[in-house]
TrEMBL record:
Protein name, UniProt field: FAD/NAD(P)-binding oxidoreductase
Residue ranges the record marks as coiled coil: none
InterPro entries according to UniProt: BFD-like_2Fe2S-bd_dom (IPR007419), BFD-like_2Fe2S-bd_dom_sf (IPR041854), FAD-dep_OxRdtase (IPR006076), FAD/NAD-bd_sf (IPR036188), G3P_Oxidase/Oxidoreductase (IPR052745)
Pfam families: DAO, Fer2_BFD
Species of the source: Clostridium tagluense
Start and end residues of each BFD-like [2Fe-2S]-binding domain: 398-451
Residue ranges of every copy of the FAD dependent oxidoreductase domain listed in the record: 3-353
Length: 479
């Protein structure tokens, strides 16, 4: 039996698991996918929001700036990419300067440090490519960018190394109350636990509604994005937002921690939580709106891919965090849409405090906060490259040319704690396949390495687990 079982291995669930691993608790994380971070955590804006956007009376307003402040130390401890590049909220009309000032005051109430309103000329001194139509902007120096899936993986690996158990491809079918505990029925058998933490993202309403008579409904909202090649990754250095108006918040333009340029998202209500389709209309709208922030037309010949992610919203437009009123020891961490990525560390502390208040565990004296990531060949000096090739010859074989990813990195991504078991798992840990050719060159070699390392036939290697088989037969069989 477990003390705590977390349902959902996204950034929130993994952050909570890492926070709980600081205590002597028997903790388990369940996820129906084949890897951590397979839902919203892998497809979002990758923004660490400063914290000026949310109402101070909401959980979003209270947790955003707190979470933001934790990122510097977490990135050092867990070795994931993070940069405080700062953000700008652009104002295009002097009549809306009052709205910009309201945003400033709201951010100050939320505890956001360093906020200042700049003139249009000051903005263009900072960012020369910003449109001349910009008359002012709110500058937030604490705004940042992060790799959300690398951060999720880092949280999970560190939690695992500190004693947390992870069960993948384990879907919850029902939950029953038994005396003072819960029985979670899954496709792999029952799990008994004292406390359940519902961090199931888009499906958190379904988990809650198995237990509580206080129902809620997640309203999925799809956001589409367009990703540009690294050749134009320096078009802006800050994350560029548009001042929200009656027509909406507009779209953002931002560099990524890996050197690309990202624009998006739009916001479309969808019926299916699994609807991750991109559309011509959505992409056209994103590019049109993003272009309002930039002087020159966006370089369309540098687009390398588009993608979409669904956000878990509810009618109350705030996080749902806390014990269900009618279900003791069942803790909801639901409807975590933006700024959920930023708030994940502070959400984890808040939820851990609830658990500690219930179980009063002792601290884990052997807790190790340090996690070492995969050594990245593309970031090494020539001397460092020579040394690592001597130590591990596989680092001398480039598999992904676009991102300069070696066989040694791919092998490490498979062999390390909670290692990759799919093509997407390797991709999110190493960036193999994320470059200009989008896996056109390296996919077959990665399949070969996965086959060898996992000791499975090539035709059993999947893209993302389940039935996502990559190889269905041999060409010569058809002759």
């Amino acid at each position: 039996m477990f003390d705590v079982t977390i349902i959902g291995a996204g950034i929130v669930g993994c952050s909570i698991s890492r926070e709980l691993s600081k205590y002597n608790l028997k903790t388990c994380v369940l996820d129906k996918s084949s890897d951590v971070g397979s839902g919203t955590s892998k497809a979002n804006s990758a923004i660490v929001h400063a914290g000026h956007d949310a109402d101070p009376s909401t959980l979003k307003g209270k947790l955003n700036a707190l979470g933001n402040a934790m990122y510097t130390d977490l990135a050092k401890e867990l070795d994931f990419p993070f940069k405080r590049n700062g953000s700008l909220v652009l104002c295009f009309d002097k009549q809306h300067l009052g709205d910009l000032e309201n945003l400033l005051h709201q951010g100050q109430k939320n505890g956001v440090p360093g906020l200042v309103i700049l003139t249009g000329d000051q903005v263009r001194e900072m960012e020369p490519n910003i449109t001349k139509k910009c008359v002012a902007a709110l500058y937030a120096p604490t705004g940042g960018i992060v790799c959300p899936y690398e951060m999720t993986i880092a949280m999970a690996e560190n939690a695992y190394n500190n004693g947390v158990k992870f069960e993948f491809e384990t879907g919850v079918t029902s939950i029953e109350k038994k005396s003072n505990n819960y029985i979670i029925k899954t496709n792999k058998g029952p799990i008994e636990t004292k406390i359940i933490i519902n961090a199931a993202g888009l499906f958190s309403d379904e988990i809650n509604n198995m237990v509580s008579d206080h129902k809620f409904k997640i309203l999925p909202k799809r956001g589409e994005y367009v990703l540009f090649d690294k050749a134009v990754g320096d078009l802006v250095t800050k994350t560029i937002f548009q001042l929200p108006t009656k027509l909406g918040k507009g779209v953002l333009v931002t560099p990524t921690v890996d050197g690309n340029l990202l624009v998006g998202p739009d916001a479309v209500d969808v019926e299916s939580k699994d609807n991750l389709c991109t559309t011509k209309e959505g992409i056209d709208d994103i590019l049109l709106n993003a272009g309002l922030s930039i002087q020159e037309p966006l370089p369309m010949n540098m687009v390398i891919t588009s993608f979409a992610g669904n956000r878990a919203k509810n009618s109350g437009n705030d996080f749902i965090i806390g014990e269900a009123i009618d279900a003791k020891n069942f803790i909801n961490v639901a409807s975590i849409d933006s700024p959920g990525l930023t708030s994940a560390p502070s959400i984890a502390v808040m939820v851990a405090d609830i658990v500690i208040g219930k179980l009063a565990p002792e601290k884990n004296s052997e807790f190790n906060p340090i996690r070492q990531g995969i050594r990245k060949f593309r970031e090494m000096s020539n001397e460092e490259r020579k040394e690592i090739i001597k130590e591990i010859p596989e680092y001398g074989k480039i598999i992904c040319r676009c991102e300069t990813v070696t066989e040694g990195e791919i092998i490490d991504s498979i062999r390390r704690p909670l290692g990759a078991t799919t093509l997407d798992g390797v991709k999110r840990r190493t960036r193999a396949g994320m470059g200009r050719c989008q896996s056109g060159f390296c996919a077959t070699r990665v399949v070969d390495i996965l086959s060898k390392e996992l000791n499975i036939p090539r035709d059993q290697v999947t893209k993302s687990g389940g039935n996502s088989i990559l190889i269905t037969g041999k060409n010569k069989d058809l002759l």
